[in-house]
Design a protein that fits this description.
Layout (H helix, E strand, L loop, with lengths): L2 H20 L8 H18 L19 E4 L8 E3 L2 H8 L4 E7 L2 E8 L2 E7 L5 E4 L20 E8 L2 H9 L11 H8 L5 H6 L3 E10 L6 H10 L7 E4 L4 H13 L7 E8 L2 H4 L4 E2 L2 E2 L4 E3 L6 E13 L2 E13 L2 E7 L3 H7 L7 E7 L3 E9 L17 E5 L6 E5 L9 H8 L11 H9 L16 H5 L6 H14 L1 E2 L1 H7 L7 H18 L4 H5 L5 H13 L1 H13 L1 E2 L16 E5 L8 H10 L3 E3 L8 E4 L7 H8 L4 E2 L1 H8 L1 H4 L1
Parallel strand pairs: 2-13, 21-22, 23-24, 23-25, 25-26
Antiparallel strand pairs: 1-6, 3-9, 3-10, 4-5, 4-7, 7-8, 10-13, 11-12, 14-15, 14-17, 15-16, 15-20, 17-18, 19-20
Helix pairs in contact: 1-2, 15-16
């Protein structure tokens, strides 16, 4: 083997994979494969002494292709890695160390001066990152103001939970826009220019180290406690030492294996409590020798035999899931793993029934097929959609070359997944226990084709009880949730129908103006609808067009026969105390339960709440009156009063102020 040529191959493959990760593109190799290739490259470099300038062993990250670039004040170097407990003990020596989770997302660096957030940089290549300060208001856990008035630099991870990842991925129409895992989704999300889309994806910032503070604070533990005091969410951490490290690692690992962590982690990190000592280490390659040591779990590989591929249609894409002979992996039974798309099947070389496969639990959570030991026969790609039996077609992406399978039926019920999800959501009919994954499954099994079918699931309760992941108790809970939802709020019902341009606010205005029966009588009366405050011609036309569709009208009428609607008739709020006043509410609220309750109060008194400041705004409510946020700046520019929540209550909510 030409070792120099192999080094070049490994460097190119690893750099390509890193580039895809840091720029939010589809992954070319799994974490398992990346680690194996990195270890092979490290060994070859040590053996031959050949280290290429662009080797990932010498670089901390990868330069993003988007965003304005800016140099880091303190280089964001990566940590050396190990899979051996003995290395952790050796690193600790006689000193106290902290063990914490290695969060699997995108590293961000936050800088504060005078108590205010100045900038947010991505890690980039460790020396230069992208400035994404414009996203400060849409990333959860980044305070705009803090009590510390000096110069403060904090580093942490932007992550998306497994729960949000599954919901977001399953509702992305275009297969090219879907993501391989939460880390990939977080990276891709922070490369978006659309702040509202970023906000909708629930990106969380969790701090893992205080990089700089003007005054002395030598203990890592004290620094983390101080960050928490300032309002940051901090990574879980525990004080330990070489004698107890094995026990601590086992405890942290067990939480991941037991499914107690909804946020993705890909290992653990140990750090010296003495931060002055930690700073005295030298820099080797792309990491500081005393900054910390990352512990990567040894992936446990199990062999199994493929039983069949289950094809499931959601939105329009038909995705494959491998079902295999059950294996025990790290304390749990595993018998299913997503294969993502046809390209992944071809890359792995998956065959038909009896194919011997290798399976791991990626990050100890997600079952993943990493290889084929023995291919048996050929896999048959279905020519019929599992949800509607219409012909399928293979689509090859112009962007990535990825092959995906699609249903050709424009009326396939699987294309209504978004509508079904909104229908059962808390803001809709609130049918607890119906996750998007369960809905997709029920659609593909033929249980759900229309909205009223949710109220006919009792026909399939016996079958559902026998499904993997269900049981009699699950069915009992589902039946109870469906029964509760039959007493429906009219606003929620209108919202749940997914009428274009009709959100919760518009639904509320319609019900207040007409009552629910009035609405059902006037669904085709554009003029009556558009005369409702802030409904207008576009929304009125959207409602009329929706109900002009015979299929939708028939569904709606059937729903009315199945539900009990709490109709209180029209509500006259024209003479309310806040009639004619328009408010914008921003930031956290302290007295009202949440902004929805605050908004509901304003509207009950005849006022209106909008999302942006304009000349029509009468008051901006913000508990941080002196904030330099865009809304505050706009309000000052237009001479619009900025009041706190307490000031609002004193002026406009006398009962609450008593």
């Amino acid at each position: 083997m030409d070792k120099e040529k192999r080094i070049r191959e490994l460097v190119d493959a690893l750099n390509d994979a890193s580039g895809r990760y840091y720029n939010g593109l589809e992954e070319s190799i799994s974490n398992f494969e990346w680690d194996a290739m990195f270890d092979e490259l490290t060994a070859l470099e040590e053996e031959t002494g050949i280290i290429l300038p662009d080797s990932p062993t010498q670089n901390a990250g990868y330069e993003e292709t988007s965003g304005n670039k800016e140099a880091h004040e303190f280089p964001a170097l990566s940590l050396a890695k190990t899979k051996k407990i003995g290395d952790l003990k050796e690193f600790a020596g006689e000193r106290d160390i902290y063990l914490s989770y290695k969060l699997d997302g995108l590293t961000l660096v936050l800088t504060y001066d005078g108590g205010r957030l100045q900038k947010i940089l991505t890690r980039g290549n460790g020396q230069i990152g992208s400035n994404i300060t414009y996203l400060k208001n849409v990333i959860i856990g980044i305070p705009e103001t803090i009590e510390e008035k000096g110069h403060l630099v904090v580093r942490g991870e932007a992550i998306i939970s497994y729960t949000d990842f599954e919901i977001i991925n399953d509702t992305i129409d275009d297969e090219d826009e879907r993501y391989a895992n939460p880390r990939n989704l977080a990276s891709g999300t922070l490369a978006l220019d659309d702040k509202e889309k970023v906000k909708s994806r629930h990106v969380n910032f969790i701090a893992f180290t205080l990089v700089h503070l003007d005054r002395p604070m030598q203990s890592f533990g004290e620094r983390m406690a101080y960050l928490k005091l300032l309002g940051f969410n901090v990574v879980e951490h525990e004080l330990t030492n070489a004698a107890r490290i094995e026990e601590s690692v086992e405890k942290f690992t067990r939480k991941v294996e037991n499914g107690e962590m909804d946020f993705p982690v890909d290992g653990l990190v140990i750090t010296y409590d003495d931060t002055d000592y930690a700073a005295t280490g030298s820099v080797t390659g792309h990491h500081a020798t005393r900054a910390g040591l990352a512990y990567k779990w040894q992936d446990v590989v199990a062999e199994s035999e493929l039983l069949y591929i289950e094809w499931s249609c959601a939105i329009a894409t038909i995705s494959p899931v491998a079902v295999f002979e059950p294996v025990n992996l790290e304390g749990t039974k595993v018998e299913r793993a997503s294969l993502c798309n046809i390209s992944e099947i071809e890359r792995l070389g998956v065959g038909g029934k009896g194919t011997r496969i290798e399976v791991i639990k990626s990050n100890k959570i997600i079952p993943k097929i990493i290889g084929v030991k023995e291919k048996v026969g050929e896999l048959t790609i279905p020519d019929k959609c599992p949800a509607c039996n219409a012909p399928t077609r293979i689509k090859i992406s112009d962007k990535s070359g990825t092959k995906t399978l699609h249903c050709t039926n424009p009326d396939c019920p699987a294309k209504d997944i978004k509508k079904f999800t909104r229908f059962v959501s808390k803001q809709g009919l609130d049918i607890d226990g119906l996750s998007i994954q369960t809905i997709v499954r029920f659609v593909n099994l033929g249980y759900i084709k229309t909205l009223p079918d949710f109220y006919k699931l009792d026909r399939f309760y016996e079958e559902i009880a026998g499904l993997d992941g269900f049981g009699e108790k699950s069915v009992e809970n589902l039946a109870a949730a469906i029964e509760r939802s039959k007493n429906a709020d009219p606003v929620n019902l209108i919202f749940s129908l997914c009428i274009p341009k009709i959100g919760k606010d518009a639904a509320k205005r319609i019900v207040n103006a007409l009552g629910f029966k009035g609405f059902t009588d006037k669904t085709g009366d554009r003029l009556a609808l558009e005369n409702i405050d802030k409904i207008g011609p576009e929304r009125a036309s959207s409602i009329a067009e929706y109900f002009a569709n015979p299929k939708r009208k028939s569904e709606f009428d059937e729903l009315l026969s199945l539900l009990t609607i709490k109709d209180e008739g029209p509500k006259d709020t024209s003479g309310g105390e806040l009639a004619g006043l328009t408010f914008v509410i921003t930031g956290d609220v302290n007295v009202y339960k949440n902004r929805d309750e605050f908004k509901a109060y304003v509207e009950s008194k005849g006022g209106s709440v909008t999302g942006s400041v304009s000349k029509k705004t009468d008051y901006l409510v913000n508990n941080d009156v002196e904030s330099t946020s865009s809304k505050n700046m706009k309000a000052k520019e237009l001479n619009i009063p900025i009041i706190s929540e307490i000031e609002f209550i004193e002026r406009f909510d006398k009962e609450r102020s008593l």
